[in-house]
């Protein structure tokens, strides 16, 4: 089954910048479909963080930014804060599924 | 503000059918051109798309679950539902309903369904 690959974990000190990669294939990111990011705080439902590769929904701090190139995408968190400690998932449409595919998830730890 | 709320049994016996309903409030399920989705998360694991449906009833399913899944919609009640047949312990998960097919902009709080005798 198609899946988007993310690093299991990233960490950084408060105030630092961290990035999370998301690697797909020719049936999803590489096919030109938009990439979206979600933040899941412990015990809660995922929340849309970035949509359309680089757009932030209302209320999402501009510390969060997204980009996409080829079959990969990345999420950057600058000025890392304790409240950013969460799991992050990328997601895209996959033509082989005629539906969505999620990333494997990355746990961000604030040191 | 759109809100989604899952409801249904939290415990299902093996080989039986898991049935969940998602109630949408704060917006019409049949307006806006949105699809409505079911997503699940196994304990301590990542997210898995189960399927999505349009208000007209057109549905798409994850091929890995397609033989066991049915998603339906009741626009008069502003609800859409999930049925998963022949469940096993591997279907134990938190089940989320969400608006959209990509991206998912509104989510329910999720409901834990445990498959156990």
| SSE string of chain A | EEEEEEEEE
The gyration radius over C-alpha positions of chain B equals 13 Å
Helix-strand makeup class of chain A: mainly beta
Q: Which assembly state applies to the chains in this document? A: heterodimer
Compute the number of strand runs of chain B: 11
Overall form of chain A? globular
How many strands, which pairing sense, and closed or not: the largest β-sheet of chain B? 7 strands, mixed
Number of helices of chain B: 0
Strand content range of chain B: over 45%
| Beta-strand fraction estimate of chain A | over 45%
The total of beta strands of chain A comes to 9
The assigned structural class of chain B equals mainly beta
Helix content of chain B: under 10%
Mean pLDDT of chain A: 96
Share of helical residues of chain A: under 10%
Order of helices and strands of chain B: EEEEEEEEEEE
Explain what the structure shows:
The complex is a heterodimer of chains A (111) and B (117). Chain A contains no helices and 9 strands. Chain A has strands at 9-12, 18-23, 35-40, 47-50, 64-69, 72-77, 86-94, 99-102, 106-110. In chain A, a hairpin with a 4-residue loop joins strand 7 (86-94) and strand 8. In chain B, the strands form 2 sheets. In chain B, strands 2, 4, 5, 6, 9, 10 and 11 form a 7-stranded mixed beta sheet that branches. The model of chain B has no long low-confidence stretch (mean pLDDT 96). Classes of the chains: A mainly beta (111), B mainly beta (117). At the A-B interface, strand 7 and strand 8 of A face strand 5 of B.
